[in-house]
Structure formats: C-alpha cells, structure tokens
Amino acid sequence: MAGTKYAYVKDFELPDPLLPNTFIVVRIDGHAFHRFTDVHGFAKPNDERGLRLMDAAARAVMDEYKDIVLAFGESDEYSFLLRRSTSLYNRREAKILTTLVSLFTASYIFHWGAYFPETSLRYPPTFDGRLVLYPGQKDVRDYFAWRQADTHINNLYNTVFWALVQQDGQTTTEAHATLRGTVSNQKHEILFSRFGVNYNGIPARYRKGSILVREIDPGPDILDLDASELLTPAGDVTKCTESSEDAAPPVPLKEPLQEPPGAVSEGMKTKGTKARATTTKKRRKLIVRVLHEDLIGDAFWAQRPAILNED
Predict the structure, then answer these.
(1) How many CB atoms are closer than 10 A to CB 85?
(2) How far is CA 62 from CA 37, 66, 273, in A?
(3) Using CA atoms, how far apart are residues 270 and 153, in angstroms rounded to an integer?
(4) What secondary structure letter does DSSP report for 298?
C-alpha cells in the first residue's frame, strides 16, 4: 500500500481473526426468496430444478475450497463445514464469509440457464451469510442435526399446506388456519386421508435435504495424482460428481498429462547402467457426491470419521 498521508485511514480497520482450533460453519441463505421464487415461477412445495441449482452452486464452492469437508442444503440455504485446522485466509472472518457468499451467489447465477433454460432471470438473486464457530465434534453434529430436522419440519408443513391449496381449493389463509396447532402425526394423517399421500414415499431430497461429501472415486486408478492435480487452476474441469440422477450438465475434461519425448517414466529408475522398474503408486481421486440420507443418527458419521477427526 502506498505510503501517502492518507494511509492512516487503514488504522480504522479492525482485525477479525477467528479462534484457532475450532470448526467453522458458514451458512448461506437466500435473501427474500419468497418473492424470488414467485416471480420466477418455482413449483410448490418443492421445485426440483431450484434444488439442483442450489446443489450446483454448493459444489462450485466445494470445488474451490478443499478445506470444506461437508455441506448441507435445504430449500434456499446451504451450510458449509470447514475443517478445524483450516488456515484459509489466515482465518479472517470477513474474508472467509464474504468470499464464500460471493462465490455461491455468482455460481447460482452462472448455472441458472442450465436448470431453468426457459426462464430468464427477471432480477439477480441475492444471498446473505453468517459464520459460527463450534468448539467440538458434538456441537458440529448437533448443528447439522438441527438443520436436517428443520428440513423435515418445513417440508412436512409445506407439503400439506400446498396440497390444501392446490388440491383442496383452500386459500393460503384458510390452509394456514387448518394447520394451526397441528402436530406431525396430524399432518401425516391429513396427507394420507385427504390426498392419499404417504409422506415417507416423498423423495428423500425433499425430506432430508442434500448432503455434499468428499469420497474416493470408485472408478479407474489415477496414477501419482492427487484430486487437486486433476484440475486446472482456472477451474475449467469439474472436480466433483454425483449420482446420475443428480448429475449437473457435463463439463469437458482436460487432456491427459503427457510426458515429453524421451522423458524417463517416474516408475523407471536407473542406477549406473542397470535399469530398475519400480511399482507405480496409485491413488484414487476424490470426488464430491450428493447424498440424501440421515445425518442425525450415528451411521453417517461412523462411515466418514475423517469429516470431524483429522488425527
């Protein structure tokens, strides 16, 4: 920064380092999305296109930041968990929060046309964010359990509410009055008795939300490459995949790495005049997968201990 007489204004900026050795959770939430979804004709109670678009934006964030080990999304929000030991941006709160929110928003707009090809954006969507520190593994698990429980509560209410409006002919005011004071079992009963809908048969995406995790690619072995080495710095190669039903539009893969003519393979070493073959180390690349399963119980975490335990 230039050493001018005006440089003193820098002194008004406050440092904002985050506590070390704590888990960082960033939650991104759509701003005024009730209006946004109405204006852009989202289906009620759930719009498959909109949920897949949210997943695509979250994948873009995980592609960019390897210290994000888990993400969870529902409706118009997404939560990202950064590993306890992350030193991203020297753990500066404003830098982490604003960059993640900015990238998520930009990615949502960038991918809009792939999921809503017949709907032009009437105005740009916006997202806000908050950053929270959690000291222990139990706190992190309870946070994501809270978000998934919220997914179920909101989706059950919305499913019954929109059935009353769309199929029973009630106004939104009447539907809210019908559901006022009801508990979960009563909502299930309304769905089944009036509309023949078994709530447990609704797609898990709607009931459980979307979970993004890094897992080992079950495909062919990748020779001597980490997952990060499979991509160009500009990010023109997708670093994450998911099940075929959730797959985003294909992104071209970059050309395989080529050795220059005459180069000696890393797997072949020479000592004096005698060539010696060595075993080439094989690593499988990491991919990001989208899951729709239970986060509240122990099974998910027991199968993926590395999310919380870095030892």
Answers:
(1) 11
(2) 25, 6, 48
(3) 65
(4) S
